[in-house]
Amino acid sequence: MGSESESNAAAGGADGRPPVGEVKEKGGPGTTEPRLLFEMPEIRFTKLFINGCFVDAVSGRTFETRDPRTGDAIASVAEGDKEDVDLAVKAARDAFDHGEWPRMSGSERGRMIARFAELVEQQAEELAVLESLDAGKHPAVTKAVDVGNATGSLRYFAGAADKIHGETLKMQGQFQAYTLREPLGVAGFIIPWNFPTTMFAIKVAPALAAGCTMVVKPAEQTPLSALYLAHLAKQAGIPDGVINVVPGFGPTAGAALASHMDVDMVSFTGSTEVGRLIMEASARSNLKPVYLELGGKSPLIIFDDADLDMAVELAISANFFNKGEACVAATRVYVQESIYDQFEEKLAERMKSWVVGDPLTDARVNQGPQVDKTQYERVLSYIDQGKREGATLLTGGRPCGQKGYYIEPAVFTNVKEDMVIAKEEIFGPVMCLMKFKSVEEAIAKANDTRYGLGAGVVTRDVDVANRVVRSVRAGLVWLNCYFAVDSDCPFGGRKMSGFGKDEGMQALDKYLAVKAVVTPLRAGSPWM
Predict the structure, then answer these.
(1) pLDDT band at 252 (very low <50, low <70, confident <90, very high)
(2) How far is residue 285 CA from its own chain's centroid?
(3) Rounded-to-integer distance, Cα 362 and Cα 524, Å
(4) Which residue ranges does the record assign to the Aldehyde dehydrogenase domain (predicted)?
(5) First vs last Cα of the chain: how many Å apart?
């Protein structure tokens, strides 16, 4: 995108904002057709989903979910509040205490979850466009990644449902014991807006496999996919009351769920600040277990033996995939000093061909709009903060387009460790590029953060790789790749990035209570 001065000179819109769909290396705005590349879905599900039925909120209130491409309303959605959460929790409690779901065999549950996955896959295109409309994503990428991950998670845990086992224990003396792994009860899920379909599935799938029932509170910015998935779950035969979905706002519906005395656990993905509030709510209510997947400021460490072209592409995808709206984005890029200048030059050149625009009308687009006006303004405020602190804006960093929430991806150089942009999670397309000299310095810089979600290492030296991987304090480390996730790979952080794992067999632990059963061994037992 050129330097900041070049970007300002090329401005073509109101207030100096270039139009979306611009490719600067071609000398100005590219032409884009307003014709939609994908068929718009019918918005069929906008009410709360409680006990197998779509219902209005008790209050009758609704809120608008908006298209981030334009800021226009997509649909009015029922606004859940405490009274609605109470009804949803009651439905989930009744389904758990008296219903068939926890009393089915694991194989029966697995068959229904697998059917759920089939239905999600059959409706993948509609789901992808629906989520893209709600969140500003590219439908083709959303279909492959978001919906693909969701179906993968459902299938994985469908296969796990009949593989939940306890242990047989030999105690001291004339006793033996065994353990039962029992479904915990009613789970509360508060999911974020950046990957709504994926997040719904990776929370719901292991809970279903374990035999739990649940209440899901989707983000108010992106409620539509969760309601559609609830409809598909019912079609799959999952009994009424097992899955309930209550759209609404965090301070009302979210707070009611987190503090509910009849909810047995809460899993939350979102900001560290809200994570604190959920832990407080648990402490003040029934001390329910809380599992948190929170913010991140992940490092990507590029050593001087790396393939530079590959490293540049990796840095771009690790920062700007999903518009930078990813908790595990590698927003701190550390490049070894001897190759830093070459890396910076290649990165600046590569970013000239990056296209920001409407992903539903322009096939060239790499990056759509930020999810809403609040996030758009937040990202721009951090970019301004970086400039004020003395960092150099190498490329991008400006709003673009005449409407909607588009931002050119920003790459900052001359970033110091104590700058706000280097310390705080921005959750947008902002990269901080920094240098290091030695392995020891790289490790120290990578760990100099309150977060510990992810990290990336780029090197051909296996000894360096092994040392850094074992030294970086993060829940997930990628070596010569980034954003490679799978249903079999545990995902979760350390430090202020939270605790507890989504995905992998470890995810089941959150939804299972371990009960020990002790029996005596009477005299005459052939062995002890």
Answers:
(1) very high
(2) 27
(3) 79
(4) 55-517
(5) 74
**Of 22, 131, 220, 293, which residue is the catalytic one?**
293
C-beta of residue 29 within 8 angstroms of C-beta of residue 401:
no
DSSP letter, residue 76: E
Tokens of 71: 């800021």
Q: What tokens appear for 30 in the block?
A: 């590219």
Helix, strand, coil % over all residues of the chain, rounded to 5:
40, 20, 40
CB neighbours of 298 closer than 8 A, spacing ≥ 6? 318, 328, 329, 330, 331, 332, 451, 453, 454, 455, 456, 474
Determine contact, residues 393/412, Cβ cutoff 8 Å.
yes
Cα 284 to its chain centre, rounded Å, is 27
Alpha-carbon gap, residue 156 to 502, rounded angstroms: 12
**Residues 327 and 268 sit within 8 Å (Cβ to Cβ):** no
Round to whole Å and give the CA distance between 295 and 276: 12
Q: What pLDDT, in 10s, does the model give residues 510-524?
A: 999 999 999 998 877
**Is 293 a known active-site residue?**
yes
CB 314 within 8 A of CB 276: no
Q: What angle do CA 225, 228, 230 make, to 5 degrees?
A: 110
Which distant-in-sequence residues (6+ apart) come within 8 Å of 428 by Cβ?
323, 324, 325, 370, 375, 378, 379, 382, 407
Enter the pTM of the model. 0.92
Non-local CB neighbours of 73 within 8 Å, separated by 6+ positions: 64, 65, 66, 67
Query: Which residues have CB under 8 Å from 463's CB, separation 6+?
Result: none
Cα(367)–Cα(320) distance, integer angstroms = 8
How crowded is residue 173: how many other Cβ atoms within 10 Å of its Cβ? 8
Instruction: Please report, as a single letter, which amino acid is at residue 287.
Output: L
pLDDT digits (tens, 9 = 90+) for 37-52: 888 889 999 999 999 9
